[in-house]
Here is the input.
Amino acid sequence: MRRLGLRRDPPAPPEFGRDAARARLAAREFDLVVVGGGITGCGVALDAAARGLRVALVEAEDFASGTSSRSSKLVHGGLRYLAQRDLSLVREALVERERLLRNAPHLVHPMRFVVPLFGRDGVLADGLVRGWSTALWGYDLVGGVRVGRRHRHIGAGDARRHVPLLRSDSLVSAFVYWDAQADDARLTLAVARTAAAHGAVVTNRAPAVGLLRRSGRIGGVRLGDGTEVRAAVVVNAAGVWCEEVERLAGVVPALRVRPAKGVHLTVPATRLPCDTAAVLPVPGGRDSVFVVPWRAPGEHGTGGAGRFTYIGTTDTDYAGPLRTPLCSAADVERLLAVVNHWTTANLAPGDVSGSWAGLRPLVDDPTRSEVAPADLSRRHAVVSSAPGLVAVTGGKLTTYRRMAADAVDAAVDALGRRPDPARRLVDRRRTAALALIGAGGPPAPPRAGGVLGVPSHRRHLFGRYGTEAAAVAELADADPRLAGPLVEGLGYLRAEAVFAARHEMAATVEDVLARRTRALLVDRDAAAAAAPAVAELLAAELGWDRHRVGQEVAAFGALVDAERAALRAGAGVA
Ligand SMILES: Cc1cc2nc3c(=O)[nH]c(=O)nc-3n(C[C@H](O)[C@H](O)[C@H](O)COP(=O)(O)OP(=O)(O)OC[C@H]3O[C@@H](n4cnc5c(N)ncnc54)[C@H](O)[C@@H]3O)c2cc1C
Here is the structure.
């Protein structure tokens, strides 16, 4: 229970429901309305609400349904940006990593990384150890060591204790350093709910289909159902859809987004065991691939492997449909080739139990079209292409808070408020130590054998719900039908689907199986088998009739079929 309880928990949102939010969206006038419920947009809503602004957020589909549920799930400075000599980006990200470890300790936890060094006949290439040592000293000095441990050089035996299948014939030694890992979709949701707790009006399933014009400025958004949300400033945080939203204003977008596809594969941990993440070089290339233990649901701390290991990522230009990037047979081949080169796992496509593909909203530099996506900057950009319209894109999951502060500064300027520098500094720091929903807070009355009101056999819930675990456990304890597994073989409870519908705005089977839980990403077949039961649980909560239940099960089946077809046919290759 590292650091739980040290910070003040914000009040639980009095209401985090679509109907109430919709009514308030139509009735009120806002300072700003945010378009996009990924980590960036949710961060903007939280920052603005914490500054006391009247803020609304509209998300077209589900929170984190775009890129923010499809990342590598690392909260890190990024060693590669050090190699690109972008020290300020690394420093900024490492500062944010520490804030996230403090503000959301239930969702973000330290993770050890092993960098294996391979050579021939026990001999490493000249300068390899020196090069890594310099890089990792640099990383530690820039801020990596803040996590509490600095890097070390270890022997091959020690490295194989963490990642047992590393090839013993070529492994010579390794470095160890520390970063952090997070459940990206649940982090995004926690930021959205914390924003609501601070007064933001937040809803999913509310696409902005038009921008309102008032007095010669952008003055709000029109939603798909015709609702008009009036606001003095619109913040476009639509990720890879950023240009699409800009065009709703009838202006030439002030920035270009270049979507770059990245995929991840999940395999059972029995096929690729590791209790530590590993960084494997792409043979003959400059890139590397992460092998990362997927913590069992709720598994905390730094030791112990989950039941799955994931492998990623790739970085390729993408020109397909933005909603449904898919992992192709070629992507699988590419990633497995790297793993099979450096380990004895001998993985085959049949070992892959889950996969996901995401699109990085990289800010393009049209003057440098020859630059590979991997070499494009991960910095974010805040621009204004029309009075009353601010766009923010690029960046990383890790740096969302910083992006949000920059975007809200621009929105405040667009409101004409222009605070003095001292006030601005105070405002920008309002979220720096602000605990997210589920972090800390006064403990609930203890139960026999449990902590924070959660019995010990339900402790795995902490890793997803933090202090709200007590509420989920209570659902399961009150109704034995909710105490059983949601997805066979995974640690999720049926009560979690009910909690998701009541308190997390889950509205589809996919919401529950892909983002409130991550079942689809780790075990596609098990998730598909659970879909009818999840639909029944949601039907009871959301009042679905038989027809709707059938539609929902079919929609989830179609998603799973599309993933399977892409893996077979090589579709989805950009
Ligand atoms: C493969 C991969 C690995 C990555 N790994 C890491 C990592 O390990 N660590 C890290 O820090 N970062 C990582 N990133 C980067 C990080 O995931 C992204 O920078 C971040 O998730 C982008 O968030 P966003 O909110 O800007 O975009 P999104 O999450 O895509 O959110 C945009 C939202 O806007 C909504 N939207 C679009 N149009 C409309 C409309 N008209 N009306 C309303 N809503 C609309 C969409 O539905 C979507 O939910 C990775 C990215 C990828 C692709």
